[in-house]
Amino acid sequence: MVFLTKISQQLTRFTALIIILAAVVAFIEPTTFSWVKGDTQVLVLGIIMLAMGMTLGKEDYKVLAKRPLVICVGTLAQFTIMPLVAIAVAKALSLSAGLTIGLVLVGSCPGGVSSNIMSYIAKGDVAFSVGMTTLSTIVAPVVTPLWLIYLVGQTVQMDGWGMFKFMLLVTLMPVAIGSSCNIFFQNKKWFETLRAVMPSVAVLAFACIVGGVAAVFGQQLFESALIAIIAIAIHNFAGYILGYFSGALVGVDKAKKRTLAIEVGVQNAGLATGLSTKFFPNSAESAVVAAVATIWHSVSGSVLANLFSWWDRRRLVANPNLDEGVKPALSAKKS
């Protein structure tokens, strides 16, 4: 059990590296990941969301019940800032229709499944992070298609109703199954072992999604990578900054501001990748943006979380008498 947990933690820690490695392998030998398409890709996405669901228990839903206002405010910030910034960046950079679809799709998806870990590292409010991720995932089947229709529906044909049904299948259903299992079997030894390895399974599943996109759209990925990275970076950093200051506007504490920065800035780009290949199969560029975002968000989110942690340690060294919850947090981490 301990061994499996440590392996899972290490795979989660090096998520970005594993995803990059999968993309490189797919470039060199496409057949390695060419099987990740169609129904297989849907299954892989379902496994990722199942892993997320297995982390949710009774206490997480109690958090939603106890703190509905602040969690709703955070989710509202996420689903307004990221889609609107995405379309603004697309227009400012004069992105092609395909790249625009991909960026808006990333911005309209719920929070990333790794954001909870990043919030923990950043000494944010982890319960708040879990609450936001849960709520954004629940409302995403409705909100994501609506944003896509509103922002890009006039320039490209899309099946909003089909996307809604698809997202119910690959998001809410697996999350509900995983969460129900966690509630009913949380004290069972076999389930504890299974739950311990699911984060690593999710990481490998993410890698398969990106590898599949790289295998199918390898040449387009290479050609569009630079402009896609620039657009994603601007979009992502704007999410961090605006997310943090949205917390300042509603007067939440520092931990929640950090959590908002991460929750708003880090999107479930793996889901965006699956949605892109499913509903925009003729737009390779949209899948390229989503695949690149999966890597970028993993790297930048981890860097930001560690910068927050480093800043706390630096302040504590400069002022040992500082009492802002930093010292207890550091002590807890060491123990």
TrEMBL record:
Subcellular location(s) of the protein: Membrane
Q: Which residues cross the membrane?
A: 12-28, 40-57, 69-89, 95-114, 126-150, 162-185, 197-218, 224-250
How does this protein lie in the membrane? Answer: Multi-pass membrane protein
UniProtKB keywords: Membrane, Transmembrane, Transmembrane helix
Respond yes or no to whether keyword Cell membrane is given for this record.
no
- Is rRNA processing among the key words of this record? no
Please indicate which superkingdom the organism of origin belongs to: Bacteria
Cellular component (GO) terms are: membrane
Q: Which PANTHER family match?
A: P3 PROTEIN-RELATED, SODIUM-BILE ACID COTRANSPORTER
Q: What is this protein called?
A: Bile acid:sodium symporter family protein
